[in-house]
Amino acid sequence: MKIGKDLNNRITEIKIANRKMVEIIKGVLELGLNVSQYRTSENIHMVEEYNKFREKIIRVLRVVYLLRTQVDKQIYDSKLLILKNKAKDGKYQTTKSINKLIRDNLITPKMASSLVNDKDNLNEIIKNLIEVAELLYGEKDSLLENTEQKDESIRFIEKE
Question: CB under 8 Å to 60, separation ≥6 — which residues?
Fold first, then answer.
């Protein structure tokens, strides 16, 4: 059965979104362990940091939901782009805030290590959530921003 190029591209986008969802699930499982551990910690600074993680995820999920359900998707496309850029920028701000907590002896080096790894993981989860939302619900394809990345993904999937 022959399918058109548009349908073939859409199927490829769904496959890419599926792979990204698997990455999201793996990341959430890893992150969930520390969120559960530090949610009830005696160290209020760790509780606050992990509460910020939960707030960030909720903010992204809310925008994804609105993108999926609202008629004017362009507003939510731009909000997702802002959240995606914040996740990218968050990687650089991570070190400053964690260094301050360590210097002030508010957290241990082990706690700092968990925070660094989990913040990076969180930013990756957010980036993947946004890309999946754009692939499945958005008017534009987030991967089209980087045409080479899309072509590479398509070639990889077509090899299967």
Answer: 80, 83, 126, 129, 130
Smallest Cα–Cα separation from 24: which of 110, 126, 154, 151?
126
pLDDT beyond 80 at 20: yes
Per-residue pLDDT reduced to its tens digit, 29-50? 999 999 999 989 999 999 999 9
Q: Count other Cβ atoms within 10 Å, centred on residue 12.
A: 19
Concatenating the DSSP letter of every residue in 20-53 gives HHHHHHHHHHHHHHHHHHHHT-S-HHHHHHHHHH
Exposure pattern of 94-129 as b/e (b: 16+ CB <10 Å)? beeebeebeeeeebeeebbebbeebbebbbbbbbbb
Nearest Cα residue to 53 out of 31, 82, 74: 31
CA 16 – CA 24 distance, rounded (Å): 12
Task: Quote the pTM value.
Answer: 0.78
pLDDT single digits (tens) 111-120: 999 999 999 8
pLDDT at 154: 43
